[in-house]
Amino acid sequence: MSQGEAAVTGLRWNNNVSVAAIALISYEYILLFGKEIEYVWKRPWSFMSCLYLVVRYFGLFLAIVCACWGGLLYMPESVSYDLIVLIEWGFSVYFCFAEIILIWRLYAISNQSKLVLQVLVGLFVPIVALSIGTDIFLYSRRDVFSVKEVITPNANYCTLSFHIGPMLAIYTSIPIMCFDMLLVILAVVTLVKHFMEQRSIKMRPNTYMVMIVRYHIFYFALCLTNQILLVILWANIPTPAMSLAELFNGTAPFILAPRLIISIWDMHANDECVHVSTTFADCVCWTSPPDFEQHEMSPGVGHPESTFSIDTEGVETA
Do 38 and 32 meet the contact criterion of CB atoms below 8 Å apart? Predict the structure, then answer.
């Protein structure tokens, strides 16, 4: 394939992926907008609702900018470089907010254990520092990462240019994946402990806790895939593979994170709960047995060993 044909192919792939990304993000936004009005704007503000708005609209902004970058809208090389650096830094900021959501959920289902929260925050701070250092070294230096303008007879567009191999990106992604794996392990261990305790008192596991742990696993799979695709972008892969990797990285995180939050609110609203008019954080349905199960417990017998005691009632988790 000649250089001109390769440039035309690259522009076609860029435009197709950009249109697909805009369509996916727009469709997802329309689907969730009604639920967002109901569960966020019409309810009292909470810590988790603020986090939802950050991942929702900051993610929407990043997704649209990613889709427009390159060839869909012409931008000079200097503007394209500044914009792609903004995008890469934005990805890191978005990742930090998504991790905070997972940490806060894990803290809640761990019976508000201060030790768990302190350990996770203590481990998360170096991850944030590593992310900042990676953005400075890999994405803010033109001798490592730059933008190249491709000129064709019909249009001009910009593409990424990587000047080093993928090894450094691999090394910096390892601590991030280890931290995400730790979050999944802690969530699964908490769920197993909850299963054992509920079985000992002959009660069903809490549905919301199961859902939260399931979402931890989903998000870990997303982060693992995202990190792998970010690494292979540095390996000078063919244009179709690079375009598809960019499509996944530019849409999946921004679709999944808000949906995982609002789906728990939606499940609570559609559940047969006598406190459905309250926010999910303030409802006792996820911190105590359902009304139809409470008769199975002796009124005079407490179960202090349960990991889902009523003390977690005030913690926002979804």
Answer: no
Give all strands (DSSP E) within the chain, no chain letters: 145-151, 156-162
Q: What is the pLDDT of residue 148?
A: 78
- The residue type at 6: A
Residues 6+ apart with CB under 8 A from 184: 216, 217, 220
* DSSP secondary structure code for residue 151 in this structure: E
For the entire predicted model, the pTM comes to 0.77
Q: How far from each other are the two terminal CA atoms of the chain, in whole angstroms? A: 51
b or e along 276-301 (b: 16 or more beta carbons within 10 Å of the residue's beta carbon)? Answer: eeebbbebbbbbbbbeeeeeeeeeee
Q: How far apart are CA 216 and CA 208, in angstroms?
A: 12
Residue 291, helix vs strand vs coil: coil
- The CA distance from 126 to 32, in Å, is 34
- Burial class of residue 45 in the structure, from the number of CB atoms within 10 Å of its CB (0-12 exposed, 13-18 middle, 19+ buried): exposed
**The pairing of beta strand 156-162 with beta strand 145-151:** antiparallel
Burial 180-197 (b: 16+ CB within 10 A, else e): beebbebbeebbeebbeb
Tokens of 39: 């569960």
Are the C-beta atoms of residues 5 and 25 closer than 8 Å to each other?
Answer: no
Taking the chain (318 residues) in runs of 10, the rounded mean pLDDT of each run is: 64 82 91 89 84 92 84 73 86 90 84 88 93 85 78 72 76 87 89 86 78 82 80 73 82 85 76 51 45 35 41 44
Using CA of residue 186, residue 188, residue 192, residue 194, what is the dihedral sign? Answer: positive
Report the alpha-carbon distance of residue 204 to residue 274 in Å, rounded: 19
